[in-house]
Design brief:
Blueprint lengths: L1 H17 L13 E10 L2 E8 L4 E9 L5 E7 L12 H7 L6 E7 L15 E2 L2 E2 L7 E6 L4 E4 L3 E6 L5 E3 L2 E2 L10 E4 L12 E7 L10 E9 L10 E5 L16 E8 L12 E7 L2 E4 L2 E2 L18 E6 L5 E6 L11 H9 L5 E7 L5 E3 L2 E2 L13 E7 L9 E4 L11 E3 L2 E4 L5 E3 L6 E5 L4 E3 L4 E4 L5 E8 L2 E8 L5 E4 L3 E4 L9 E5 L2 E4 L6 E4 L5 E4 L2 E4 L3 E9 L2 E9 L5 E3 L10 E5 L1 E6 L4 E6 L6 E9 L6 E6 L6 E9 L5 E7 L7 E5 L1 E2 L2 E2 L8 E9 L4 E14 L19 E6 L2 E8 L3 E9 L4 E9 L2 E7 L7 E8 L4 E8 L1
Parallel strand pairs: 12-13, 37-44
Antiparallel strand pairs: 1-2, 2-3, 3-22, 4-26, 5-24, 5-26, 6-7, 8-9, 8-18, 10-11, 10-17, 13-16, 14-15, 14-16, 15-17, 19-20, 19-23, 21-22, 21-23, 24-25, 27-29, 28-33, 29-30, 31-34, 32-33, 34-35, 36-38, 38-39, 40-43, 41-42, 43-44, 45-57, 46-49, 47-48, 48-57, 49-56, 50-53, 50-57, 51-52, 51-56, ...
């Protein structure tokens, strides 16, 4: 009996724990880095925020509703209901932009039925109801631009001139057909209505709002035959139980009224009066600064914890600010759930938070271009959108300047790209990357800004500002240089050849972590310029030998050693003619010999996994990009071959090549990791052993001729970063736009090429093979989701390599 009682108590506590309410707390995302932060329109502020540790990207916007020159609207796809076809978000952006009404940011809202083509839940678009009176929650914005979140119970009815009332069941209809016995078809109707019933054509005499005064409508026509809507008139359909509700009560010329009011709430506050735009929240996540019990935790069997890409909206406690946060699901940004994203919003100003759609629909758009990668990797058409609009008059005059960040905190001896933006008086962007500015740093020890708007920070941790000036206008950027308690070269020894020229990796460490520093800030000398030098921060090998390289900057000294080993295109590893060169291990093989003709001879016995392993522990010369061995194996004796390796960092690794993957009998392995060539820090490589995996058939007198056991090397100009400066005669150029790097190259003839993207720390970020055609070629590299910085694009053809520098600001 005691055991049963104990189990019951445990069950009760377990159930109570499952019903516990989440608390608002800082999500475990690590340190935030503000990549972009600037105004995009009157009272409309935009930020791109990176979290390195998770990783995660947030697009965060704040709309100050008190600004008289902005407006937030709910807009319908193609301005119609239903809309099974739908627009994508860039189309929403373009279609709703016109003189005096310019969209600055757009997000999807998008709870809809795929087949029916209409939203799930109620929405309000410029005072008009779009479909259904039902909803979980409503984020409404009133005519006087106050926002509120509330429960959306509604009173919707029509009143004839003599006071006869008919309740409205639905607005418009779905693609499935008409629902309800009293349907009001308004501006958003897209169906040709033909249902049996009484039709009343009306024309609004007042401005449409919800939760305000009744809207007077003049009756234009009453008909037993279907009437259709137009841009000038709406249509009321009475049918079924309400078919005769207004018999004898309405005629042409009468004035009826439409009532659209919110009634008493099941929870929350009273809806504001005169609502112009409203968005169904599915559901309310945070209410009055805490998680909304009974709403967020009653979300389709736990969807509040579903990891996805998201759009969520919130309002400030004083109702004057709207916040919208967007995420993505990609290799650069992990999925998040409602609870952690809502918590972050509350900690950044939101008092109430509602959920918009997630997954493949979650999108944000600026300048008619997508900012994030949608959840399913492609831009998906959506049902409706939230848009932040500038109502400011046209103004092309430059009024003020601003940096693309509000402040920066780089480490000492580092590089930071700067971007200056030009604005009109309404905070509308006229120039996103204003050229020709002059820069000063105060104090001077803060550093300097070069002609490419690259900030070179000084060697001392100080606070100050960078001032940009052009045509009498100025912008100031607060700067707080972070100290580096320890500055060191990541590697004190480098092995290089004549092809790969690695950037010297210098790091500083402080309490805030480890940071890459600028090797070009140091003055470098070499003990032997004929062997190796450092140019533009890269080690350049000239001839075989060893050179000591010394760097000096602001009293900081660094010393590294460079060993140069210049190799031909291939080097024989072993002639494979003497078994005494190897330690031999085997299973299922006996009487192993290696004759002077490089033939491996042996007998095979029964074994589950037969093999022959030749251990050699041979250090490979220079920096090979691959090694291989050719087998003449008509019997198919070898099923696979394993190259057992160790790199310069002491890490042992195996590379196995199956016989089916060999080419013309050559078992070849390339030194790649995730399709990216090994960094020079892993060289020299040592070949510890090769292991021949054999088939299970027994037999005597087996002969396996071995040929061309070689290491292969990139020839001069075939790979690696040659330089970080822009080649003045280069036919390769690169620009950044829409989150992608676009390279342009003029080819002399059709040929195969490889295009690569590198960071200035020597990391290859992307590589792809391309077929060039004679003339101009446009090449696209993946979006850069890292912080602004300097990147290098290289293009390699059969006989040359060109490169250019590109700056992401």
């Amino acid at each position: 009996m005691k055991r049963i009682l104990l189990l019951s108590i445990v069950a009760v506590f377990t159930a109570m724990a499952s019903l516990a309410i989440d608390e608002v707390k800082e999500p475990d995302w690590g340190r935030a880095e503000i990549a972009e932060s600037y105004m995009v329109g009157p009272g409309i502020h935009y930020q791109k925020i990176l979290f390195r540790e998770k990783p995660l990207i947030l697009w965060f916007a704040e709309v100050d509703l008190s600004n008289p020159y902005n407006k937030v609207e709910q807009v319908e796809s193609r301005n119609s209901v239903p809309d099974v076809a739908r627009w994508d978000l860039p189309t929403f952006y373009n279609e709703n932009s016109h003189e005096g009404h310019h969209v600055k940011l757009a997000w999807n809202h998008d709870f809809f039925s795929y087949d029916g083509g209409m939203n799930i839940g109620n929405n309000i678009s410029n005072g008009q109801m779009t479909r259904t009176p039902w909803g979980r929650s409503m984020l409404g914005i009133s005519k006087d631009k106050k926002a509120e979140v509330f429960y959306p119970a509604m009173d919707l009815h029509l009143t004839a001139a003599d006071g006869t009332i008919v309740n409205i069941d639905y607005f418009n209809s779905s693609a499935w057909g008409t629902e309800g016995d009293c349907v009001y078809f308004n501006t958003f109707n897209s169906r040709t209505v033909g249902d049996d019933g009484l039709y009343i054509s009306v024309q609004a005499m007042d401005e449409w709002t919800v939760n305000g005064d009744d809207i007077r409508c003049k009756v234009l026509e009453v008909s037993e035959s279907p009437l259709q809507t137009s841009t000038a008139n709406d249509v009321i359909l009475l049918r079924g139980s309400k078919r005769h509700a207004w018999d004898g009560h309405v005629q042409a010329g009468d004035v009826i009224t439409v009532t659209q009011r919110f009634t008493s709430n099941a929870w929350g506050r009273t809806a504001p009066a005169y609502i112009l735009n409203g968005f169904h929240g599915y559901p309310s996540i945070v209410h009055d600064g805490k998680f909304h019990d009974g709403e967020y935790n009653d979300f389709e069997n736990g969807r509040e914890y579903e990891k996805s890409s998201r759009v969520m909206a919130g309002i400030s406690q004083d109702k004057t600010k709207l916040y919208i946060v967007t995420t993505e699901m990609s290799t650069a940004s992990q999925a998040v759930d409602c609870v952690e994203l809502a918590s972050w919003m509350v900690l950044h100003g939101a008092w109430d938070v509602v959920n918009f759609d997630s997954g493949g629909s979650a999108t944000i758009c600026m300048d008619a271009e997508m900012l994030n990668v949608p959840g399913r990797g492609a831009v998906r058409p959506v049902r409706d959108a939230l848009i932040a609009v500038s109502l400011a008059p046209t103004d092309k005059d430059m009024h003020h300047l601003a940096f693309s960040k509000e402040e920066i905190g780089p480490t000492v001896i580092s590089l930071t790209p700067l971007r200056v933006m030009g604005y009109n008086q309404y905070d509308e962007i006229l120039e996103k990357d204003l050229k020709g500015c002059s820069f000063t740093c105060e104090p001077a020890e803060l550093g300097y800004v070069d002609d490419e708007a690259m900030f070179h920070s000084g060697a001392k941790a100080v606070e100050g500002k960078i001032i940009a000036t052009k045509d009498g206008l100025t912008a100031e950027l607060p700067v707080k240089l972070q100290a580096a308690d320890t500055i060191y070269s990541v590697y004190d020894k480098y092995l290089v050849d004549a092809v790969r020229k690695p950037l010297v990796q210098i790091y500083g460490e402080s309490v805030d972590g480890k940071f890459a520093l600028d090797p070009t800030a140091f003055a470098w000398t070499s003990t032997d310029n004929g062997v190796a030098t450092i140019e533009n921060g890269c080690i350049v090998g000239h001839n075989n030998g060893v050179a000591s390289l010394h760097g000096e900057h602001a009293g900081i000294s660094l010393d590294i050693e460079a060993t140069v080993e210049i190799a031909p295109e291939e080097i024989v590893i072993d002639e494979m003619t003497d078994i005494s060169h190897f330690d031999v291990a085997k299973s299922g093989a006996t009487n192993i010999t290696l004759n002077s003709n490089a033939e491996l001879c042996f007998d095979k016995t029964s074994s589950r996994a037969p093999y022959i392993k030749l251990t050699m522990n041979k250090r490979l010369y220079s920096l090979p990009d691959s090694l291989g061995i050719q087998l003449d194996d008509p019997e198919g004796l070898v099923t696979n071959m394993t190259f057992m390796m160790r790199d310069n960092q002491g890490t042992a690794f195996n590379v196995q090549v199956d016989a089916k993957d060999s080419r013309n009998g050559v078992f070849m392995t390339r030194f790649l990791e995730d399709s990216i060539p090994y960094g020079v820090e892993r060289y020299p490589l040592s070949l510890l052993a090769i292991k021949f995996g054999l088939n299970t058939m027994s037999g005597t007198g087996k002969v396996l001729p071995l040929r061309n056991f070689k290491a292969y090397y990139p020839s001069t100009g075939q790979s690696g970063i040659n330089d970080v400066a822009v080649a003045t005669a280069s036919r390769l150029t690169a620009t950044v736009a829409d989150g992608c790097i676009y390279a342009c190259y003029t080819a002399e003839h059709n040929e195969l090429a490889k295009v690569e993207l590198w960071s200035t720390t020597g990391m290859q970020l992307a590589t792809k093979a391309v077929m060039l055609t004679q003339g101009t070629n446009e090449l696209t590299l993946p979006a850069i989701t890292a912080a602004p910085g300097v990147y290098i694009v290289t293009l390699t053809t059969g006989n040359k390599q060109e490169h250019c520098k590109v700056i992401v600001r």
